């Protein structure tokens, strides 16, 4: 079976789409960065590097310094797909990141998005 094409998309392009989505809903790029860093462990320099160097989504998650265990608390549906039912670990990571950005754009509080009270 062919690999899903999102795995080969440049992270920088996806990042730009996340920022645009957030900003359309009166949220900020710094909030998008905070969520990505919370989930993956990238620092500012590392995030800037993978945005600029053509890193693919697959490579972005493979290189992630410290995936946050709390990301497993990110459940629900994104694009009609239930995150908790995904078997492919990479697709699950991508959908979890999509979900937290979606929650940000919908106005959810940062503490709740990060599952701080879970």
TrEMBL record:
Entry superkingdom: Bacteria
Gene3D superfamilies (UniProt xref): uncharacterized protein sp1917 domain
InterPro entries referenced in this protein's UniProt entry, alphabetically: SP1917_dom_sf, UCP033199
Name of the molecule in the record: DUF2200 domain-containing protein
Species assigned in the record: Corynebacterium phoceense
């Amino acid at each position: 079976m062919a690999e899903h094409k999102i795995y080969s998309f440049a992270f920088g392009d996806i990042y730009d789409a996340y920022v645009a989505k957030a900003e359309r809903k009166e949220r900020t790029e710094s909030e998008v960065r905070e969520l990505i860093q919370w989930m993956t462990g990238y620092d500012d320099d590392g995030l800037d590097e993978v945005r600029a160097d053509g890193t693919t989504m697959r490579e972005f998650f493979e290189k992630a310094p410290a995936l946050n265990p709390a990301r497993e608390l990110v459940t629900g549906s994104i694009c009609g797909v239930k995150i908790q039912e995904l078997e492919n670990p990479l697709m699950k990571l991508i959908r979890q990141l999509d979900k937290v950005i979606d929650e940000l754009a919908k106005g959810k509080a940062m503490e709740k998005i990060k599952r701080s009270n879970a």
